[in-house]
Write a structure and sequence with these properties.
Strand order of the largest sheet of chain A: 3-2-1-4-5
Number of strands of chain A: 16
Number of helices of chain A: 12
Number of strands of chain B: 24
Strand content of chain B: 25-35%
CATH superfamily of the largest domain in chain A: ATP-grasp fold, B domain
Number of domains of chain B: 2
Shape of chain A: globular
CATH architecture of the largest domain in chain A: 2-Layer Sandwich
CATH class of the largest domain in chain A: Alpha Beta
Distance between the termini of chain B: 25 Å
Oligomer: heterodimer
CATH class of the largest domain in chain B: Alpha Beta
Distance between the termini of chain A: 42 Å
Chain lengths: 366, 433
């Protein structure tokens, strides 16, 4: 069987490893923007091929799939989904594990995700507002200047998925620091507008959400358009520095517990988290009239008031969280992929090893 | 016993913070650690900004000062003496240093800190890595101190001496701000989360991209020397020092005092504000009800550290207006936090008797002060310390009380919950080793 992967990070390396473990005697083909040496070794070992190309270019990726004559394509990162790579590959009759462009809106637009959640009355919601410019945001904040308005305790985010950076959480409780904090908010919103000016595929630039507290966790799932199957929960250590201080990063490391749960989550909370993700998939399928084949993940927070709350969604496996679950996956991943393609995932028994895993991120300074 | 605070921003857009006002409110929360001098230091695009003024924080700085002060890294300082200034080092590394306690150079407090700053700057320039350099300095320089330095390379370096005499705590606000403070209550006031304490002999460095820690190979636990005076008197009761709640220590002190030195009385009265938790503990353990005996006029002033007798008495008279009906015709257990010279206590006892108090049994929530503090806490010269000259019975006579008793040193250690060997007990005349 010829399987082609897209993307060149550690998550994709873990995908390639899982594919290489399959009993289907896979030949691995891969495309990424920089060569990942780990994936390259697997490609060589299985006598596949490796190409460097822009992975957000649907025509390029689909042509490679055609040229290599692969049986299926697996997408690693989110940007190819946003750019319609899955749509183009499928248009050419090649099955693809990945979210189509319109379905990946759940991840691409944090604002649209929230709108869908409210429109369909799905649990784990947060209050939110979106703005096209910082001036618009500031005018609105001035209208709601009372200190007790939820708009004072907020997370400021880029409205589009933008590499997980630029999020600020501002808790404005002390009246005597209100001036400095609202000033900082304004400056950060202006900064966000600049930061987002490079993305022309979305109108909303700034997302303001109510501030919530609680431990965060990631629920990753396989989806075949009919069934959503949850994997073991992963907690991602996002903060860059010692003492858990510092900005949220793309991820500095992650761990799983024994089994599906994490120490702070009950079985019931897991089921509620899963039902939120399932409902979101149903909703976006209804909105677009398309079928979701691939991975989805809910970045969740266990808040005191709501319990499981949806913070954001991924149209892919998490990075690094994907590495943890793929390392634990005992079922043949190609069996799972075939079941996704045929929409018979409910008939597959997906097993994960019972051991806990820990991943650690290392990065250069700066 | 100065108060220190440093606040450091992280993440994209970190330059958008203006931290002078954060530092100001942090200093208000640390005001009790020093009432003679206050300084706000920031670092921004244009380099360092400094404001250093005499007096109370809320009088020293105006709205205009705070509005006009730029800078996205902030550091603040309050000191109990007009002569203890932040140390500015020009070369080989430009930096501003503030400190609590005293590094072990032979001279006065200010000179010791200057020497410490110069050594630190030299080491940073020689070693290159400021974290390594700071750890070496902490390893070499004896004494009891906590310090914080802000360099022109936007590094905030903080650390504690190897015995852990003076406290330093770590906190954060959201994802964006990290903070180092003398006491955790300053974090509460800023709406920050209290995360941890810096370990004895540990140095921590904040730079734009990281927080790094390094620790001198720890001595055994019993080689620590944490300042017991912090728990008894210096720190705010809402602070947590090295994981121990100051309030709970003070309440336990009262309970232990009631067991060690019981007295027959109708009511327990604590002298505001420090001795109130002692009195509540004493009341709980003895079953004697507690009452509020005094109301304070004017702002909180630390009378024991006022320079002249006249100022101290004026402070005490303003501070302690007795509530007549709480004491009229009653036998009273009167609890104070410490006795230095006995002058203010005598004044208080006399005042209470005039308001109708019958018998007054004075209990002190600390052992007798017998010796000066080698780490810069201002304690009068030995010949003025009442407990060096008189025993408890004689002190009772001098202050006009019906009985008088100190807390024992063992009782103090039990209340804090640390072994004798983990605490500095030098001011109580208890030398270890």
């Amino acid at each position: 069987m010829k399987v082609m992967g897209v993307g060149g990070g550690s998550r994709e390396h873990a995908l390639a490893e899982a594919i290489a473990r399959s009993n289907h005697e896979p030949k691995i083909f891969w495309v990424s923007e920089d060569r990942n040496p780990g994936i390259y070794r697997l490609v060589k070992r299985t006598r596949g091929e490796y190409a460097l190309a822009r992975i957000t270019d649907p025509l390029k990726v689909a042509s490679l799939a055609e040229q290599w004559g692969v049986d299926m394509v697996v997408i690693g990162p989110e940007e190819p989904n946003f750019h319609g790579v899955v749509d183009e590959v499928e248009r050419r009759g090649i099955p693809c594990i990945g979210a189509r462009r319109r379905l990946s809106i759940l991840e691409m637009s944090k604002a649209e995700m929230r709108r869908i959640q409210w429109r369909y009355g799905i649990g784990g919601k947060l209050l939110f507002k979106t703005y096209r410019s910082y001036m618009e945001a500031i005018r609105d904040l001035e209208k709601h200047s009372e200190l007790l308005s939820w708009l004072q305790n907020v997370a400021l985010k880029p409205a589009r998925q933008a590499g997980g950076k630029g999020v600020k959480v501002i808790e404005d409780v002390q009246v005597y620091l209100h001036g400095e904090k609202s000033r900082f908010k304004q400056r950060h919103m202006r900064w966000l507008e600049d930061y987002m000016s490079g993305y022309t595929d979305i109108e909303d630039k700034i997302l303001v959400e109510e501030r919530v507290w609680g431990p965060e966790y990631t629920l990753q799932c396989f989806v075949d358009g009919r069934t959503v199957i949850g994997m073991p929960l992963v907690q991602d250590n996002k903060h860059a520095h010692e003492y858990d201080i510092g900005p949220e990063t793309g991820g500095m490391g992650s761990y799983t517990g024994k089994g599906l749960l994490l120490p702070f989550i009950t079985r019931e909370e897991y089921e509620r988290s899963l039902s939120i993700v399932k409902s979101m998939i149903d909703a976006v399928q209804r909105e677009t009239d398309e079928r979701y084949h691939g991975f989805v993940a809910g970045q969740m927070m266990l808040t005191e008031i709501e319990g499981p709350t949806l913070i954001e969604m991924y149209s892919r496996l998490g990075d690094p969280e994907g590495v943890n679950v793929l390392a634990m996956l005992e079922t043949d991943i190609i069996d799972i992929f075939e079941a996704i393609i045929d929409e018979r995932l409910s008939a597959v028994k997906i097993r994960f090893s019972e051991g806990a895993t820990v991943g650690k991120g290392v990065g250069p300074e700066g | 016993m100065p108060g220190l605070i440093g606040i450091y921003p992280f993440g994209l857009g970190r330059e958008n913070w203006r931290l002078a006002r954060f530092v100001y409110y942090g200093l208000l929360a640390l005001q009790h650690r020093g009432q003679e001098l206050a300084a706000i230091i920031t670092y921004g695009d244009e380099g360092f900004h400094k404001l250093s003024r005499e007096g109370f924080v809320d009088e020293a700085f105006t709205e205009n000062d705070l509005n006009a002060m730029p800078g996205f890294i902030g550091m603040g300082y309050v000191a109990p003496s007009k002569d203890q200034h932040p140390v500015f080092v020009e070369s080989p590394v430009r930096m501003i240093l503030i400190g609590d306690g005293k590094p072990g150079f032979g001279n006065g407090v200010q000179d010791s800190w200057r020497a410490f700053g110069e050594l630190l700057a030299d080491e940073i320039s020689r070693v290159g890595d400021s974290l390594k350099a700071a750890r070496q300095v902490v390893e070499e320089v004896d004494g009891g101190y906590s310090f914080m330095a802000l360099t022109e390379d936007q590094e905030l370096i903080a650390g504690r001496d190897i015995h852990g005499v003076k406290p330093l705590e770590i906190g954060s606000l959201g994802f964006d701000l990290g903070a180092v403070v003398s006491e955790s209550s300053a974090l509460d006031v800023l709406g920050m989360e209290h995360i941890a304490h810096i370990e004895p002999g540990e140095v921590v460095r904040f730079d734009p991209y990281s927080i790094e820690r390094s620790r001198v190979k720890p001595h055994s636990r019993l080689n620590m020397s944490k300042c017991s005076f912090e728990y008894v008197y210096l720190a705010r009761p809402d602070s947590i020092i090295d994981g121990i709640s100051v309030y709970s220590v003070r309440e336990r002190i009262g309970m232990i005092l009631a067991k060690e030195r019981p007295a027959e009385a109708d009511v327990v009265i604590g002298i505001p504000e420090t001795a109130i938790p002692f009195s509540l503990g004493y009341s709980r353990a003895s079953g004697i009800p507690a009452s509020l005996g005094f109301v304070t006029t004017g702002r909180k002033v630390r009378t024991a550290i006022k320079p002249s007798i006249f100022e101290r008495l004026m402070g005490v008279q303003l501070k302690l207006n007795p509530i007549r009906c709480a004491m009229d015709g009653k036998d009273i257990v009167l609890i104070d936090d410490s006795v230095v010279r006995g002058t203010t206590l005598r004044n208080t006892v006399w005042n209470m008797k005039r308001r109708g108090a019958r018998r007054i049994h004075v209990r002190i929530g600390s052992p007798a002060i017998m010796a000066p503090c080698p780490y810069g806490i201002e304690i009068p010269p030995p010949d003025e310390l009442i407990a060096r000259a008189l025993d408890e019975r004689e002190i009772a006579e001098v202050v006009g009380a019906d009985s008088f008793a100190f807390l024992s040193i063992d009782g103090l250690c039990r209340a804090i919950g640390l072994e004798k060997g983990e605490l500095c007990l030098k001011c109580w005349g208890c030398e270890k080793r």
